[in-house]
Amino acid sequence: MASIKWVADLTHSEVKFKVKHLMLTTVSGYFRSFDVEALTPDAAFTGVESLVFTAEVDSISTNNAQRDTHLKSADFFDAAQHSQVRFVATEYEQVSGEKYKLLGELSIRGITRPVALDVAYGGTVVDPYGQTKAGFSVHGKLSRKEFGLTWNAVTEAGSVVVSNEIKLHAEVQLVKQVPYPAWN
User: Fold this and answer.
1) What percentage of the chain carries pLDDT values higher than 90?
2) How many whole angstroms from its chain centre is CA 126?
3) Which of 153, 14, 15 is nearest to 76 (CA)?
4) What pTM does this model have?
5) Cα distance between residue 142 and residue 150, in whole Å
6) Which residues does 141 contact at the CB level (< 8 Å), separation at least 6?
7) Is there a contact between 99 and 92 (Cβ–Cβ < 8 Å)?
């Protein structure tokens, strides 16, 4: 049986992150430009043969232009030298029911580290236009310092400006790619 190729439906997907600011409130951001490609043995996602996620660092948005510019600078993501964030899956295993663990290698700023993500598989359906789609909620945490995102400052009272822990959340809808018929 041939593998099934899937790509992100970008109009129905989002990739977000959250970080504590001054240890008082949480600031959210997202990537406006990203892609996901996957190969699976079947439409029920009983396994994943390959999965690659890429996000353009220059598309980062926190709804604050000054903060976004700082995040793209060498203090954080260094977009001029490292234009993409990349995740390559190494394992996809069922935990229970529709809950899965997605293991892989995350590369940020030229540093690659293993990460584990929690995945909730929402199912596979055919939409009103005849496209087969699958939905997922993905959650995880990482240490930004492990990826070279070490900038910080300390307030007068001794609090750090940016926490080390980053929370990740993605809602991803994938579209099954239909191969073109072979021309005879």
Assistant:
1) 77
2) 24
3) 153
4) 0.90
5) 13
6) 165, 166, 167, 168
7) no
CATH code reported for the domain at 4-176: 2.40.128.110
Of 122, 115, 116, nearest in space to 99 by CA? 122
Q: Model confidence over 3-58: pLDDT tens digits?
A: 999 999 999 999 999 988 777 788 999 999 999 999 999 988 989 999 999 999 99
Q: Using the 8-state DSSP alphabet, how is residue 178 labeled?
A: P
Distance of CA 172 to the CA centre of its chain: 9
- 13-50 burial: b if 16+ Cβ within 10 Å, else e: bebebbbbeeeeeebebbbeebebebbbeeeebeebee
Q: Quick: pLDDT tens for 127-160.
A: 999 999 999 999 999 999 999 888 776 666 666 6
Terminus-to-terminus CA distance in the chain, angstroms?
Answer: 22
* Look-up of token digits 């001794």: 158
Query: Are 66 and 157 contacting, i.e. CB atoms less than 8 angstroms apart?
Result: no
Q: 28 with 68: CB under 8 angstroms?
A: no
| Beta strand extents in 73-159 (DSSP E only) | 84-96, 99-108, 111-126, 132-143
* Amino acid in the structure at residue 159: S
